[in-house]
Amino acid sequence: MFSRPPYIQCPYCGENSFGINTICDNHYTRRCRICWRPSGSERFETYPLPPLNKHVIYLDQFVISKMMKCIASGSGNPIDAKYGEYWIELYDRLMVLRNGQMIVCPYSDVHMDESILSGDHAKLKRMYEFLAFDVAFKSLHMIERMQMSNHANWWIEGLGDLHYEFDPQSVMSGAINTWQTWYYFSFPRNWLLNSREEKREYRERVHEKLKGLFRRWQNDQRSTFDDWFKAESAGYGKIILAEFARYYGKLKDISISGGLPSPFEIETPLIIDFVNDVLRVFESHGLSGKGLCSKVLDYFHSPSLQDIPNNRISSMMWAAVAQKAAHGQKRPLNKGMRDDIRFISVTLPYCDAMFIDKECHALLKESPPSKEIEKYGTKLFSLNNKQEFMEYLANILTTASAKHMAALSEVYGESWKIPHKPNFAE
User: CA 397 to CA 103: how far, in whole Å?
Assistant: First the structure.
């Protein structure tokens, strides 16, 4: 029933009332707001839209939080006296590009988890969904599984050089390169709040372990970057096998005892999925029985696991952290470092650009991590080069094709240029 501007002359009644009815992936339809035609059995004519190639831009949670707080606090921006104007300007530029079908800023399970820990979780959810417009990364666990399955298939076939296709759409829920309509759907996730304290306690436990590891690195004057990288990357397969053995050992003990296990005791850890995925890959190549088990063990002990993208990037980042600690860094790791490194290592190859925190940005500027990142062509930004990010966004707009700009005017009129703010009212 919709008929929205911009309007053109109606071919049925002759009035300037033939507006936009629907916007679909690659076309749109029109309908008159006066005579309501086409109607009944009359066919809606479709108007084609040019193909899109949106830039995939990841915004760290702190960026989401800063923009949300500045917008929610009003024009005075008292929340961030130093960068307040920057966050407002950044939001406006991102929204114009999002409205202009030139970028997508997908949210992730990291955004969801970190928002849950905040007292402003509802506002943060509103913010990242408003920017993402129904596009989100699949779970990090799922993307990690995809990368390992790809690698396992290459390993068992012995096919020369390993090659990955880093197609952003393959790791997203929601279509990237489609023309957006005027609305998106948002559903409450209040049930996630039940795990808030559990997540907070887990984060504290992990942080305590990392602090101990950091102190050990500070006292290590012998190891080199390569030593730390090899240790980190080699641990990937070992941890998976150890968890696999621990889980099935526990099930065996429960079976021998004859007792009734609790649901918690028999809950399958997510890490077991990696072994099951590799088993399926190898079975599809005709392996079975003892030969299958032997190959799986060989695989998880293989040095080639360091070539799985998320393991390689993550290991380099942790090796860079160890190197900084050994070279005299006194400042301890922040509580979000583990989650940040995991997210970046998993999703970086699929992004055109990432705005991350200064600490992670500095790690990725170190050598050799910087050389590794160059392979993916992902542009990295933080508060250290915040104006370069503005220039990057400005260039996206100025390089848009004339055909694209004409289609924007045809479908959205001038409204796409307005950076509407989300409503944070409860």
Answer: 10
At residue 6, what are phi and psi to the nearest 5 degrees? Answer: -80, 145
Answer whether 248's CB lies under 8 Å from 236's CB.
Answer: no
DSSP state of 43: P
Q: Is residue 426 part of a domain?
A: no
What's the pLDDT score for residue 198?
A: 80
Residue 418 resides in a domain: no
36 lies in which domain range? Answer: 4-48
Instruction: Please give the structure tokens belonging to residue 53.
Output: 């190639």
Q: Divide the 426 residues of the chain into consecutive groups of 10 and give the mean pLDDT of each group.
A: 90 97 96 95 96 98 94 67 88 98 96 87 93 95 97 90 91 97 72 71 87 93 95 95 86 70 59 95 96 96 96 97 94 89 97 97 93 96 97 97 98 96 79
Give domain status of residue 199, yes or no: yes
* CB contact burial 305-334 (16+ within 10 A = b; e otherwise): bbbbbbbbbbbbbbbbbbbbbbeeeeeebe
Let me know the angle formed at the C-alpha of 359 by 357 and 364, rounded to the nearest 5 degrees: 95
Beta-carbon contacts of 67 under 8 Å, excluding residues fewer than 6 positions away, are 87, 88, 90, 91, 127
pLDDT score of 194: 65
Residue 335 placed within a domain = yes
The H-or-E segment that residue 30 falls in is strand 27-32
> What are residue 9's phi and psi, to 5 degrees?
-65, 130
142 in the same domain as 16: no
Tell me, yes or no, whether 290 and 368 share the same domain: yes
Confidence (pTM): 0.92
102 and 153 co-located in one domain:
yes
